[in-house]
Specification:
Number of strands: 23
Largest sheet: 9 strands, mixed
CATH superfamily of the largest domain: Vaccinia Virus protein VP39
CATH topology of the largest domain: Rossmann fold
Distance between the termini: 44 Å
CATH architecture of the largest domain: 3-Layer(aba) Sandwich
CATH class of the largest domain: Alpha Beta
Low-confidence stretches: 1-8, 318-324, 326-332
Strand content: 15-25%
Number of domains: 3
Shape: globular
């Protein structure tokens, strides 16, 4: 087949095609080219922090969906099957955080990392956050999840996604890997390095990226990737697992990076068994030529190009020598709550949440404050005292002082992220809107509009607006009109 045949949808550069010929045999290369005439695959991953896959399958409005074979909670969907006006990215369930739209191949690395509740996990190159959310779901709110993103604008998207999807044990840092390694030597049980790369595997998904491919130098990318891996190695506990992934085809950025890393880090070895996380036939189809590495090819699997390697650090260090806390200089800016802060917070929780909801926040964790802003962090967490971060745990809201002639007083203003991490049954003051009956009201709320709510017979004051019992945001009933408290950045734009 001519190098340009099969590439009408995506204009692949000749240099790229020549490079692919050196990787694939003639039959594979023909199939690879033909895949670019096929439509890309669409998928979503159910957020098990809020809903289980079986329940989602009973209630979703997206027609026929099929499970992504290397995950338990990922599903392919077909946009062509949707009824008019329905889109996963614009549906109220999306704004409730019930699922995340994610390229199916991108779901593999988190599966390979296999995080457990209670562990300390690092997603070293985390934005926009799809893999972080997958890790958080597997951890089920237990343990410490650190998501790092050096780029400030991408870091904002990461924080928003973590809050939208109800992650309660997440911390976000904005550091270079070397700086992070200085503060967290030998600290994490598992580390994911979804490395910056030339992005060759995403050409079908993002055809415009083909035009800029020659701006990415594979050799330069590989040097950056090796440096990131070296810093990750410093932060991993003995016996810990490291997963390296890219969305490119280049062996220079994939197998050769792993071989070079293993040459300089003899205390690491590849893991060749996926521990029954993936069915045997799928595992065989994913196997790459280098042991412990896995590839998704667009002509073999329903996904874009992806590479992953699973490595384990030798466990020769006595357990008592492994660090349990990061070494971190600097001034502590967080403190325990004052009696007034604690009293005001408790008063709010017992007024607006059920007993179970209040217990979820007040028990089993530490409450910390900075300038009146309150966050909830795991009991085992040395933060926020040890290391300031962009996001420290579950941000609950702020204590707002009120002027009073009699005595100092204050109120608690809850955050949107506080509500996003709660279940509808945890809240006592609720306006529950049902689909499809209240679809118009739901969409008006998501667009930031004031709502007429006299038909619901609500008490005046603050309440949680839910769709089918899943929280969307706060509102305030004022004489049968609901004042919309949904932050502008969380609103529906179309």
């Amino acid at each position: 087949m001519d190098a340009r045949e099969g590439c009408n949808r995506v204009k692949l550069q000749p240099q790229f095609l020549e490079a692919m010929k050196t990787i694939l045999d003639e039959q594979e290369y023909s199939g690879f080219l033909a895949s670019y005439n096929q439509p890309r695959n669409f998928a979503l991953r159910v957020n098990t922090l809020k809903i289980q896959p079986l329940q989602f399958l009973k209630n979703h409005p997206f027609g026929r969906i099929e499970r992504v074979p290397w995950t338990r909670d990922g599903f392919y969907y077909q946009p062509s099957e949707f009824a008019a006006g329905i889109s996963p990215g614009n549906h109220p369930y999306y704004f409730a955080g019930l699922y995340y739209l994610q390229e199916p191949s991108a779901m593999l690395p988190a599966v390979l990392l296999d995080p457990k509740p209670g562990e300390r996990i690092l997603d070293l190159c985390a934005a926009p956050g799809g893999k972080t959310l997958q890790l958080a779901a597997a951890m089920a709110g237990e343990g410490i999840l650190v998501s790092n993103e050096p780029n400030s604008s991408r870091c904002k998207a990461l924080v928003r996604n973590i809050e939208m999807y109800g992650v309660r044990n997440g911390f976000v840092t904005q550091s270079a890997p070397a700086a992070l390694a200085e503060r967290f030597p030998v600290y994490f049980h598992r580390i994911l390095v979804d490395a910056p790369c030339s992005g060759e595997g995403m050409f079908r998904k993002t055809p415009d990226a083909c035009r800029y491919w020659d701006r990415f130098d594979n050799a330069r990318c590989s040097r950056i990737q090796l440096e990131i891996l070296a810093q990750a190695a410093r932060m991993l506990l003995p016996g810990g697992r490291l997963v390296y992934s890219t969305c490119t085809f280049s062996p220079l950025e994939n197998e050769q990076v792993i071989q070079e890393f293993l040459h300089h880090h003899p205390d690491f070895h590849p893991l060749t068994n996926l521990n029954d996380r993936i069915p045997g036939d799928i595992q065989a189809a994913l196997e790459s030529r280098l042991p412990g590495t896995w590839r998704i090819w667009p002509h073999r699997m329903r996904g874009e190009g992806h590479f992953a390697a699973v490595l384990e650090k030798e466990d020769e260090t006595p357990k008592e020598l492994a660090r349990s806390d990061p070494a971190s200089p600097g001034n502590a800016v967080w403190k325990s709550l004052t009696p007034l802060e604690h009293s005001v917070l408790e008063e709010f929780l017992h007024s607006y949440l059920t007993a179970a909801g209040a217990d979820l926040i007040l028990n089993g964790a530490k409450l910390k404050a900075e300038n009146g802003h309150i966050s909830r962090v795991p009991l085992s967490c040395p933060w926020p005292e040890k290391m300031p971060a962009v996001k420290n745990g579950w941000y609950l809201g702020r204590i707002k002082p009120i002027k009073s002639e009699r005595s100092p007083s204050a109120i608690f203003e809850p955050s949107h992220s506080m509500l996003s991490a709660l279940d509808g049954k945890d809240i006592s003051a609720v306006l529950n809107l049902k689909l499809p009956e209240h679809e118009n009201l739901v969409n008006r709320y998501l667009k930031g509009e004031t709502l007429p709510v006299e038909e619901f017979g609500l008490k005046d004051g603050r309440l949680a607006v839910c769709v089918d019992h899943y929280p969307l945001g706060w509102g305030k009933n004022e004489g049968d009109m609901l004042k919309n408290l949904l932050p502008p950045g969380w609103r529906k734009t179309r």
